[in-house]
Amino acid sequence: MMKKISMLLIFVLLLGTFISPMVLxxxxxxxxxxxxxxxxxxxxxxxxxxxxxxxxxxxxxxATNTDQVEEYIVTGQDLQNxxxxxPNANMYSSAKVTHxxxxxxxxxxxxxPENITSVTREMYANALLTAGVENALVEVASPLKVTGHxxxxxxxxxxxxxxxxxxxxxxxxxxxxxxxxxxxxxEEGIDADEVTALLTEIKKVISELDPATREExxxxxxxxxxxxxxxxxxxxxxxxxxxxxxxRSLNIDFGQVTQQLEDIVSDIRGRLDGITNVDTEGLWNxxxxxxxxxxxxxxxxxx
Length: 303
Fold this sequence. Notes:
Blueprint: H1 2-26, E1 42-46, H2 51-60, E2 70-74, H3 76-83, E3 94-99, E4 106-110, H4 121-131, E5 136-141, H5 150-158, H6 168-188, H7 192-209, H8 214-227, H9 234-249, H10 254-276, H11 280-300
Parallel strand pairs: 1-2, 4-5
Antiparallel strand pairs: 1-3, 3-5
Helix pairs in contact: 3-5, 4-6, 4-10, 6-9, 7-8, 7-10, 8-9
Protein backbone atom coordinates (compact mmCIF):
# COMPACT_ATOMS: atom_id res chain seq x y z
CA MET A 1 0.00 0.00 0.00
CA MET A 2 2.84 2.42 0.86
CA LYS A 3 4.33 1.74 -2.54
CA LYS A 4 1.06 2.69 -4.24
CA ILE A 5 0.80 5.89 -2.18
CA SER A 6 4.35 6.84 -3.15
CA MET A 7 3.54 6.26 -6.80
CA LEU A 8 0.43 8.41 -6.42
CA LEU A 9 2.51 11.28 -5.01
CA ILE A 10 4.94 10.99 -7.89
CA PHE A 11 2.01 11.11 -10.31
CA VAL A 12 0.65 14.30 -8.69
CA LEU A 13 4.05 15.96 -8.99
CA LEU A 14 4.36 14.92 -12.62
CA LEU A 15 0.85 16.16 -13.37
CA GLY A 16 1.68 19.53 -11.82
CA THR A 17 4.81 19.72 -13.99
CA PHE A 18 2.71 18.97 -17.08
CA ILE A 19 -0.04 21.50 -16.35
CA SER A 20 1.80 24.46 -14.81
CA PRO A 21 3.56 25.62 -18.02
CA MET A 22 0.13 25.86 -19.69
CA VAL A 23 -1.20 28.04 -16.88
CA LEU A 24 1.83 30.31 -16.99
CA UNK A 25 1.60 30.64 -20.76
CA UNK A 26 -2.02 31.76 -20.44
CA UNK A 27 -1.20 34.77 -18.22
CA UNK A 28 -0.08 38.17 -19.49
CA UNK A 29 1.81 39.17 -16.37
CA UNK A 30 -0.56 42.14 -15.83
CA UNK A 31 0.26 44.46 -12.95
CA UNK A 32 -1.29 47.53 -11.39
CA UNK A 33 1.53 49.97 -12.21
CA UNK A 34 0.54 52.95 -14.36
CA UNK A 35 2.55 53.20 -17.58
CA UNK A 36 4.07 56.68 -17.28
CA UNK A 37 5.44 56.53 -20.82
CA UNK A 38 2.20 55.70 -22.66
CA UNK A 39 -0.44 56.69 -20.11
CA UNK A 40 -3.41 54.72 -18.84
CA UNK A 41 -5.30 52.26 -21.06
CA UNK A 42 -8.41 53.79 -22.62
CA UNK A 43 -11.71 52.00 -22.07
CA UNK A 44 -14.55 52.84 -24.46
CA UNK A 45 -18.01 51.52 -23.56
CA UNK A 46 -21.02 51.24 -25.88
CA UNK A 47 -23.67 53.84 -25.09
CA UNK A 48 -26.55 51.34 -25.42
CA UNK A 49 -25.25 49.17 -22.56
CA UNK A 50 -26.99 49.25 -19.20
CA UNK A 51 -24.90 50.05 -16.13
CA UNK A 52 -24.91 46.37 -15.18
CA UNK A 53 -23.69 45.42 -18.67
CA UNK A 54 -20.98 48.08 -18.47
CA UNK A 55 -19.80 46.50 -15.23
CA UNK A 56 -19.65 43.15 -17.03
CA UNK A 57 -17.46 44.70 -19.73
CA UNK A 58 -15.21 46.36 -17.17
CA UNK A 59 -14.76 42.99 -15.51
CA UNK A 60 -14.09 41.21 -18.84
CA UNK A 61 -11.49 43.79 -19.83
CA UNK A 62 -9.81 43.92 -16.41
CA ALA A 63 -10.77 47.57 -16.07
CA THR A 64 -12.70 47.67 -12.79
CA ASN A 65 -10.17 49.97 -11.10
CA THR A 66 -11.20 53.41 -12.32
CA ASP A 67 -7.86 54.87 -11.23
CA GLN A 68 -6.07 52.61 -13.73
CA VAL A 69 -8.02 53.47 -16.92
CA GLU A 70 -9.43 56.45 -18.79
CA GLU A 71 -13.09 55.74 -19.54
CA TYR A 72 -15.23 57.09 -22.39
CA ILE A 73 -18.62 56.31 -23.92
CA VAL A 74 -18.97 55.70 -27.68
CA THR A 75 -22.22 57.05 -29.15
CA GLY A 76 -24.13 57.08 -32.40
CA GLN A 77 -22.88 60.64 -32.84
CA ASP A 78 -19.31 59.29 -32.75
CA LEU A 79 -20.33 56.87 -35.48
CA GLN A 80 -21.42 59.79 -37.61
CA ASN A 81 -18.39 61.92 -36.76
CA UNK A 82 -15.78 59.25 -37.50
CA UNK A 83 -17.23 57.38 -40.46
CA UNK A 84 -20.40 59.22 -41.49
CA UNK A 85 -22.72 56.60 -40.01
CA UNK A 86 -26.19 56.78 -38.50
CA PRO A 87 -26.16 58.99 -35.36
CA ASN A 88 -29.17 57.07 -34.01
CA ALA A 89 -27.38 53.70 -34.12
CA ASN A 90 -27.18 51.61 -30.94
CA MET A 91 -23.62 51.05 -29.78
CA TYR A 92 -22.99 47.85 -27.78
CA SER A 93 -19.55 46.34 -28.35
CA SER A 94 -16.75 47.95 -26.36
CA ALA A 95 -12.95 48.03 -26.37
CA LYS A 96 -9.88 48.77 -24.29
CA VAL A 97 -6.80 50.22 -25.98
CA THR A 98 -3.37 50.01 -24.37
CA HIS A 99 -0.59 51.92 -26.11
CA UNK A 100 2.67 50.03 -26.58
CA UNK A 101 6.28 50.73 -27.55
CA UNK A 102 7.43 51.20 -31.13
CA UNK A 103 7.71 47.85 -32.88
CA UNK A 104 4.92 46.19 -30.89
CA UNK A 105 2.51 46.46 -33.81
CA UNK A 106 -1.25 46.07 -33.59
CA UNK A 107 -2.41 43.10 -31.52
CA UNK A 108 -6.14 42.42 -31.22
CA UNK A 109 -7.79 40.11 -28.70
CA UNK A 110 -11.51 39.37 -28.63
CA UNK A 111 -12.09 38.73 -24.93
CA UNK A 112 -15.70 37.56 -25.38
CA PRO A 113 -15.53 35.61 -28.68
CA GLU A 114 -18.86 33.94 -27.95
CA ASN A 115 -20.56 37.36 -28.19
CA ILE A 116 -18.78 38.84 -31.24
CA THR A 117 -20.50 37.00 -34.07
CA SER A 118 -19.25 38.52 -37.33
CA VAL A 119 -15.88 40.21 -36.90
CA THR A 120 -12.73 38.17 -36.23
CA ARG A 121 -9.66 39.58 -34.55
CA GLU A 122 -7.79 39.39 -37.86
CA MET A 123 -10.52 41.48 -39.48
CA TYR A 124 -10.18 44.07 -36.72
CA ALA A 125 -6.40 44.10 -37.07
CA ASN A 126 -6.56 44.47 -40.83
CA ALA A 127 -9.03 47.36 -40.64
CA LEU A 128 -7.13 49.10 -37.83
CA LEU A 129 -3.89 48.96 -39.80
CA THR A 130 -5.71 50.50 -42.75
CA ALA A 131 -6.99 53.24 -40.42
CA GLY A 132 -3.42 54.04 -39.36
CA VAL A 133 -3.39 52.51 -35.85
CA GLU A 134 0.09 51.56 -34.66
CA ASN A 135 1.64 49.86 -31.64
CA ALA A 136 -1.31 48.98 -29.47
CA LEU A 137 -3.01 46.12 -27.68
CA VAL A 138 -6.71 46.28 -28.53
CA GLU A 139 -9.13 44.17 -26.50
CA VAL A 140 -12.78 43.85 -27.59
CA ALA A 141 -15.71 42.69 -25.48
CA SER A 142 -19.50 42.63 -25.37
CA PRO A 143 -21.86 41.32 -22.67
CA LEU A 144 -24.42 40.25 -25.29
CA LYS A 145 -24.30 38.84 -28.81
CA VAL A 146 -23.50 41.52 -31.40
CA THR A 147 -21.84 41.59 -34.80
CA GLY A 148 -18.91 43.58 -33.40
CA HIS A 149 -18.91 46.44 -35.89
CA UNK A 150 -19.43 49.22 -33.35
CA UNK A 151 -16.24 48.25 -31.50
CA UNK A 152 -14.26 49.69 -34.41
CA UNK A 153 -15.79 53.11 -33.79
CA UNK A 154 -15.00 52.78 -30.10
CA UNK A 155 -11.38 52.04 -30.98
CA UNK A 156 -11.34 55.08 -33.25
CA UNK A 157 -12.57 57.18 -30.34
CA UNK A 158 -9.77 55.84 -28.14
CA UNK A 159 -7.27 57.10 -30.72
CA UNK A 160 -8.94 60.50 -31.05
CA UNK A 161 -8.69 61.58 -27.43
CA UNK A 162 -5.79 62.81 -25.33
CA UNK A 163 -4.51 64.94 -28.23
CA UNK A 164 -4.25 62.07 -30.72
CA UNK A 165 -5.92 61.95 -34.11
CA UNK A 166 -6.49 59.41 -36.88
CA UNK A 167 -7.00 60.46 -40.49
CA UNK A 168 -10.71 60.77 -41.30
CA UNK A 169 -10.45 59.26 -44.78
CA UNK A 170 -8.47 56.28 -43.52
CA UNK A 171 -11.00 55.64 -40.74
CA UNK A 172 -13.82 55.69 -43.29
CA UNK A 173 -12.10 53.33 -45.73
CA UNK A 174 -11.15 50.97 -42.88
CA UNK A 175 -14.80 50.80 -41.88
CA UNK A 176 -15.70 50.19 -45.52
CA UNK A 177 -13.16 47.36 -45.55
CA UNK A 178 -14.72 45.74 -42.47
CA UNK A 179 -18.20 45.99 -43.96
CA UNK A 180 -17.09 44.52 -47.30
CA UNK A 181 -15.26 41.61 -45.67
CA UNK A 182 -18.11 40.66 -43.34
CA UNK A 183 -20.63 40.95 -46.18
CA UNK A 184 -18.57 38.62 -48.38
CA UNK A 185 -18.20 36.12 -45.55
CA UNK A 186 -21.92 36.21 -44.72
CA GLU A 187 -23.37 36.26 -48.22
CA GLU A 188 -20.83 34.24 -50.19
CA GLY A 189 -20.30 31.62 -47.49
CA ILE A 190 -16.51 31.93 -47.65
CA ASP A 191 -14.41 31.26 -44.56
CA ALA A 192 -13.32 34.44 -42.75
CA ASP A 193 -9.67 33.36 -42.74
CA GLU A 194 -9.72 32.93 -46.52
CA VAL A 195 -11.14 36.41 -47.02
CA THR A 196 -8.56 37.89 -44.62
CA ALA A 197 -5.76 36.11 -46.48
CA LEU A 198 -7.14 37.36 -49.80
CA LEU A 199 -7.14 40.98 -48.63
CA THR A 200 -3.65 40.64 -47.17
CA GLU A 201 -2.29 39.29 -50.45
CA ILE A 202 -4.01 42.00 -52.50
CA LYS A 203 -2.45 44.65 -50.27
CA LYS A 204 0.95 42.99 -50.63
CA VAL A 205 0.73 42.95 -54.43
CA ILE A 206 -0.45 46.58 -54.47
CA SER A 207 2.55 47.57 -52.34
CA GLU A 208 4.87 45.82 -54.80
CA LEU A 209 3.32 47.04 -58.06
CA ASP A 210 2.11 50.49 -56.97
CA PRO A 211 -0.84 50.58 -59.40
CA ALA A 212 -1.75 53.99 -60.78
CA THR A 213 -5.23 53.33 -62.16
CA ARG A 214 -8.49 51.62 -61.24
CA GLU A 215 -7.97 49.23 -64.17
CA GLU A 216 -4.72 48.02 -62.63
CA UNK A 217 -6.46 47.54 -59.28
CA UNK A 218 -9.15 45.50 -61.03
CA UNK A 219 -6.52 43.29 -62.64
CA UNK A 220 -4.80 42.66 -59.28
CA UNK A 221 -8.11 41.78 -57.58
CA UNK A 222 -9.11 39.40 -60.37
CA UNK A 223 -5.70 37.70 -60.39
CA UNK A 224 -5.74 37.16 -56.62
CA UNK A 225 -9.29 35.81 -56.68
CA UNK A 226 -8.08 33.32 -59.27
CA UNK A 227 -4.99 32.46 -57.19
CA UNK A 228 -7.18 31.78 -54.17
CA UNK A 229 -9.65 29.87 -56.32
CA UNK A 230 -12.50 32.05 -55.08
CA UNK A 231 -15.62 32.90 -57.03
CA UNK A 232 -17.45 36.09 -56.07
CA UNK A 233 -20.63 37.57 -57.41
CA UNK A 234 -20.10 40.52 -59.79
CA UNK A 235 -21.45 42.83 -57.05
CA UNK A 236 -18.94 41.66 -54.43
CA UNK A 237 -16.09 41.69 -56.91
CA UNK A 238 -16.96 45.30 -57.67
CA UNK A 239 -17.06 46.11 -53.96
CA UNK A 240 -13.51 44.80 -53.59
CA UNK A 241 -12.30 46.83 -56.56
CA UNK A 242 -13.96 49.98 -55.20
CA UNK A 243 -12.40 49.37 -51.78
CA UNK A 244 -8.84 48.95 -53.00
CA UNK A 245 -9.12 51.75 -55.53
CA UNK A 246 -10.10 54.06 -52.69
CA UNK A 247 -7.17 52.80 -50.62
CA ARG A 248 -4.86 53.43 -53.57
CA SER A 249 -6.05 57.03 -53.79
CA LEU A 250 -5.14 57.57 -50.11
CA ASN A 251 -1.52 56.44 -50.68
CA ILE A 252 -1.59 54.04 -47.72
CA ASP A 253 1.69 52.23 -47.10
CA PHE A 254 0.39 48.75 -47.89
CA GLY A 255 3.84 47.23 -47.42
CA GLN A 256 3.83 48.22 -43.76
CA VAL A 257 0.22 47.15 -43.27
CA THR A 258 0.82 43.76 -44.84
CA GLN A 259 3.97 43.11 -42.85
CA GLN A 260 2.26 43.84 -39.55
CA LEU A 261 -0.67 41.60 -40.39
CA GLU A 262 1.66 38.81 -41.46
CA ASP A 263 3.52 39.26 -38.18
CA ILE A 264 0.27 38.77 -36.26
CA VAL A 265 -0.59 35.62 -38.18
CA SER A 266 2.98 34.31 -37.87
CA ASP A 267 2.90 34.84 -34.11
CA ILE A 268 -0.25 32.73 -33.82
CA ARG A 269 1.19 29.94 -35.93
CA GLY A 270 4.52 30.18 -34.17
CA ARG A 271 2.97 29.78 -30.75
CA LEU A 272 1.08 26.66 -31.88
CA ASP A 273 4.14 25.18 -33.55
CA GLY A 274 6.29 25.97 -30.55
CA ILE A 275 3.91 24.21 -28.18
CA THR A 276 3.02 21.20 -30.26
CA ASN A 277 5.39 20.59 -33.17
CA VAL A 278 2.53 18.42 -34.41
CA ASP A 279 -0.86 19.03 -35.92
CA THR A 280 -3.49 20.40 -33.51
CA GLU A 281 -5.81 17.41 -33.81
CA GLY A 282 -2.94 15.06 -33.05
CA LEU A 283 -2.01 17.13 -30.00
CA TRP A 284 -5.45 16.96 -28.40
CA ASN A 285 -5.85 13.28 -29.22
CA UNK A 286 -2.53 12.69 -27.48
CA UNK A 287 -3.60 14.66 -24.42
CA UNK A 288 -6.92 12.78 -24.29
CA UNK A 289 -5.16 9.42 -24.52
CA UNK A 290 -2.67 10.50 -21.85
CA UNK A 291 -5.37 11.30 -19.32
CA UNK A 292 -7.35 8.17 -20.21
CA UNK A 293 -4.29 6.05 -19.47
CA UNK A 294 -3.69 7.98 -16.22
CA UNK A 295 -7.31 7.43 -15.15
CA UNK A 296 -6.98 3.72 -15.85
CA UNK A 297 -3.75 3.51 -13.86
CA UNK A 298 -5.26 5.55 -11.00
CA UNK A 299 -8.26 3.23 -10.69
CA UNK A 300 -5.85 0.28 -10.52
CA UNK A 301 -4.32 1.65 -7.33
CA UNK A 302 -7.42 0.70 -5.40
CA UNK A 303 -8.20 -2.68 -7.03
